[in-house]
């Protein structure tokens, strides 16, 4: 990847995706002087000036009082979190095109062949042996609010001295050049991804952030992966800038990625499904999470699982790609199980031994064991379903249930104690990890604090699931009816009451909520990307607390995460909390005035009523 040439033409100092650059004046000739060549320092190449190639800094730049940017390539070394990829030098002003001459984004200026996907082919996709096929129309993967609507071009950002980096409006350096084989739009969104998106879309920042060091070099040689990267980048920019042009571009790149995956699936009957296509599917999962989807992410996550299995697991992939996909899959899969146990295919993937000791991942950090434990807690209601089936079968044979009820009570008690002990015994040092290059001690400390919040959230979640089980268990008291023989021994309820199971959990729910929110209140949520992982602890604390002050902390903190990191599922969490609190308050008022004994609604009941497949990754 060394020495990728920058295009020689000077770019406009203000660039938006829907505004093609002005065409050069015809008949213009180069000024006399030393012949310009493509070799030399980056500064001279940008200025189209001859370079004397003196190292480490060119003398021509020094004589003119310019800063020489050296001879390296921006792709050689992984970029730091604040790397200035494109310099901010002054450029000559160009005549602005009139409004009548501007074109809308669906018809951009001529671009390299990599943009040919903008005319999506809608041919039907054959079923594959993987059980997953791309629909015949990309629109079926795009909800109604995301359908492409022609829009007038807008300037999505015009950075000025008064704009703060931490404001809710996204700001990136103005482009000064683009890689020769990329379209201007691809260069634009790739630049945003390098400078901001890659840092804000991870829960761990380091010099070795794979969203830059791994994805970008691969995308440079894979049009399919480039479309997927640009789709996520454009959508994230749209979330943070409210730019309709970026939103339209995101939908276009998303559709193009689906078309590319369709082609890859057609070939996989005779060829191995390539790593770049696997990464593209993973980025589609990420796209839907960034968008705040409550449906489409399930299709992509289940597809990713089948594709990994079809490849023979992570061990069959390139190490860097395998580590990235493993972290993404483990994070999304277990977060999905917490809220959507029935919509996710049980995993057949070995994520623990395929690639040896894993790196400290940019998504899961130190929380992997807690996430897996919460997914196990989510399985507790399955004991209830098994018990109902057992009751029906045994009652039909007029056999006493007393013995079976004792077994079920004992089994549930053992499961509660097991999960509680696992939460107590957890430590961030329990699992060995390879620390990524450039990870500071302060970053590791923040990851530990986030993981402690997840442990508190685990206790809250355990209380929440057990309360729902107790609330929803059937009334097994004997009721007589004509012609019915009642088994009087069914009156013994196999499910313990709250008084029975609550003492089995070492940390009371109110203590866990208080501890979790007390920590989060002290965090500077907008300063470090590690805190972007706190959506689940905040959400479950908000669901399980009736205290007005707690609700204010939750909403304020979620608002900061939404503004600073631009992840759409945070907005969905806030929406669901609003519905839940309104229902709970209405039930409380009804009970207060004596209008009934309504049960306090559970947040999972709201998820089911809405038909959402919520994911809090």
UniProtKB/TrEMBL annotation:
Residue ranges the record marks as coiled coil: none
CDD domains assigned to the protein according to its UniProt record, in alphabetical order: GAL4
Domain Zn(2)-C6 fungal-type per the UniProt entry, residue ranges: 40-68
InterPro entries the UniProt entry points to: Fun_TF, Zn2-C6_fun-type_DNA-bd_sf, Zn2Cys6_DnaBD
Keywords associated with the record: DNA-binding, Nucleus, Transcription, Transcription regulation
GO terms of biological process kind: positive regulation of transcription by RNA polymerase II
Protein name: Zn(2)-C6 fungal-type domain-containing protein
Organism: Penicillium expansum (Blue mold rot fungus)
């Amino acid at each position: 990847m060394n020495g990728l040439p920058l295009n020689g033409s000077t770019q406009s100092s203000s660039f938006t995706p829907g505004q093609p650059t002005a065409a050069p004046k015809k008949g213009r000739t180069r000024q006399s002087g030393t012949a310009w060549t493509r070799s030399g320092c980056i500064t001279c190449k940008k200025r189209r000036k001859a370079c004397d190639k003196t190292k480490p800094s060119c003398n021509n730049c020094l004589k003119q009082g310019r800063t020489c940017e050296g001879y390296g390539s921006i792709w050689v070394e992984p970029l730091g979190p604040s790397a200035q990829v494109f310099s901010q030098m002054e450029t000559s002003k160009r005549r602005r095109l009139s409004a009548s001459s501007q074109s809308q984004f669906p018809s951009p200026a001529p671009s390299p062949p990599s943009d040919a996907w903008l005319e999506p082919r809608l041919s039907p996709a054959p079923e594959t042996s993987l059980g997953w096929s791309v629909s015949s129309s990309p629109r079926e993967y795009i909800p109604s609010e995301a359908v492409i609507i022609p829009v007038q071009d807008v300037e999505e950002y015009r950075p000025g001295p008064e704009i703060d980096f931490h404001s809710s409006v996204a700001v990136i350096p103005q482009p000064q050049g683009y890689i020769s084989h990329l379209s201007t739009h691809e260069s634009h969104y790739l630049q945003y991804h390098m400078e901001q998106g890659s840092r804000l879309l991870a829960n761990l920042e380091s010099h070795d952030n794979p969203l830059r060091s791994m994805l970008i070099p691969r995308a440079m040689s894979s049009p399919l992966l480039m479309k997927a990267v640009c789709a996520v980048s454009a959508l994230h920019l749209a979330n943070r800038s409210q730019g309709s042009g970026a939103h339209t571009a995101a939908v276009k790149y998303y559709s193009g990625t689906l078309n590319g995956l369709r082609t890859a699936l057609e070939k996989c009957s005779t060829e191995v499904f390539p790593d770049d296509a696997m990464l593209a599917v993973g980025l589609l999962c990420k796209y839907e999470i960034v968008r705040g989807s409550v449906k489409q992410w399930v299709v992509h996550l289940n597809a990713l699982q089948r594709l990994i299995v079809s490849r023979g697991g992570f061990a069959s992939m390139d190490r860097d790609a395998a580590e990235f996909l493993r972290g993404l899959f483990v994070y999304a899969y277990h977060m999905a199980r917490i809220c959507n146990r029935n919509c996710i295919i049980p995993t057949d993937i070995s994520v623990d031994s395929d690639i040896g000791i894993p790196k400290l991942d940019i998504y899961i950090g130190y929380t992997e064991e807690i996430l897996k434990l919460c997914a196990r807690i989510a399985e507790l209601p399955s004991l209830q379903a098994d018990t109902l089936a057992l009751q029906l079968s045994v009652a039909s044979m007029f056999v006493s249930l007393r013995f079976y009820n004792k077994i079920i009570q004992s089994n549930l008690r053992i499961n509660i104690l097991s999960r509680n002990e696992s939460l107590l015994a957890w430590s961030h040092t329990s699992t060995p990890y390879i620390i990524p290059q450039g990870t500071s001690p302060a970053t590791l400390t923040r990851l530990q604090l986030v993981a402690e919040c997840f442990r508190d959230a685990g206790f809250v979640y355990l209380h929440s699931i057990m309360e729902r089980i107790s609330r929803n268990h059937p009334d097994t008291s004997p009721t007589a009816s004509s012609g019915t023989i009642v088994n009087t021994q069914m009156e013994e309820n196999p499910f313990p009451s709250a008084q029975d199971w609550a003492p089995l959990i070492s940390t009371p729910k109110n203590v866990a909520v208080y501890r979790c929110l007390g920590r989060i209140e002290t965090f500077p949520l907008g300063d470090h990307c590690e805190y972007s992982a706190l959506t689940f602890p905040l959400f479950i604390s908000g669901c399980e607390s009736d205290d007005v002050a707690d609700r204010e902390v939750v909403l304020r903190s979620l608002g900061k995460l939404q503004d600073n990191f631009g992840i759409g599922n945070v907005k969905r969490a806030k929406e669901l909390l609003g519905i839940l609190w309104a229902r709970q308050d209405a039930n409380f008022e009804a009970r207060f005035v004596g209008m009934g004994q309504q049960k306090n609604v559970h947040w999972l009941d709201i998820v089911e009523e809405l038909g959402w497949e919520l994911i809090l990754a």
